[in-house]
Design brief:
mainly alpha, 13 helices, two-stranded antiparallel ribbon
Length: 313
């Protein structure tokens, strides 16, 4: 029998494709949501260890700027994405060697510090980054084909869906593996983990590097979707947005980040259209409601409703 999460993932995929077909403007919004879902899935790996990164937009911007810098020499989307993930992975390994030594607020604030330093460099090094003007990204080819705007949008959305499904499956397998279970031990009984001969620092470093690669991949997808990259991607508000989505979606399943990201983007779009001067208040009210009435996020709320329905049946 097919697992419930797999059924939900497939139904969600069909729903996204149907929504994009019925409302073409949603292709852009849903692609951005799926890209951010990848980055939030990386944050979920760290949350399993009880650690929160307040600076994960660093890897979002690294992936995006990797695409912006390499696009003139590497024209194909299918090559740019893994290169961006590899660059983010390398940076994540270097920074992770330092931050994996710390826990709790020190872990979160050190990540924020690295992100803000990188944001400042992006703004100040105008000759390289074009400062706050940003860098225009010319539309990449897809598997060697130069596509027009509409086919290109469908191709990027389809690729984002495939990455969400494939990497989501890999992340789920990782979390139930011995290494993934060691992450939970860092949160609950790190000292016992060390006594068992397992280095908590190395386990956290692996998770941190994986989350950095997911963030870089997400940033590359964003760059290939918006076709414009600015230093704002590294700003602290972007990191806060990722944490917001992680809380909104819930950490009970790999599907939580994607559910939270899609809901977040849709609420933001419709709130900005209805209340252009107060859309942040709407988002804040949604988050407050989740914290008060569904502390395990939207996925936890879904599980509660499903289990209640099964008991009644």
């Amino acid at each position: 029998m097919m697992p419930r999460a797999t059924i939900v993932a497939l139904l969600g995929t069909v729903g996204i494709l149907a929504a994009a077909a019925l409302a073409p403007w949603l292709k852009f919004v849903l692609t951005v949501a799926l890209a951010k879902g990848l980055a939030v899935m990386g944050i979920l790996l760290l949350l399993r260890a009880g650690q929160v990164s307040f600076g994960h937009a660093l890897y979002l911007s690294i992936g995006a700027y990797t695409v912006a810098f390499l696009r003139p020499a590497v024209p194909d989307l299918l090559v740019l994405l893994p290169l961006a993930a590899a660059v983010a992975l390398g940076v994540g390994l270097v920074i992770g060697l330092f931050v994996a030594r710390y826990r709790d607020i020190f872990f979160g604030m050190l990540n924020l510090a690295f992100s803000m330093v990188f944001h400042s460099l992006l703004e100040k090094l105008y000759a390289i980054t074009k400062g706050t003007d940003g860098i225009r990204v010319f539309r990449p080819t897809v598997a060697g084909f130069a596509l027009e705007r509409l086919p290109y949008e469908w191709a990027v959305l389809g690729l984002a869906l495939l990455l969400a499904l494939g990497l989501g499956w890999l992340a789920a397998r990782f979390l139930v593996s011995p290494l993934g279970q060691a992450l939970v031990a860092i949160k609950t009984r790190e000292t016992r983990l060390e006594f068992a001969g397992v280095s908590a620092r190395r386990v956290l470093l692996v998770a941190y590097a994986a989350s950095a690669a997911l963030g870089g991949l997400a940033g590359a997808l964003l760059a290939c979707t918006t076709l414009h990259v600015t230093p704002h991607l590294a700003y602290w508000t972007q990191s806060g947005e990722l944490v917001f989505i992680a809380i909104l979606g819930g950490g009970g399943s790999i599907l939580g980040p994607y559910l939270g990201s899609v809901v977040y983007e849709l609420v933001r779009v419709y709130a900005a259209a209805a209340l252009p001067d107060a859309w942040q208040m709407v988002l804040g009210a949604v988050l407050l409601g989740i914290i008060l009435f569904a502390s395990r996020g939207l996925w936890g709320l879904y599980e509660d409703l499903v289990m209640r329905g099964w008991r009644r049946a």
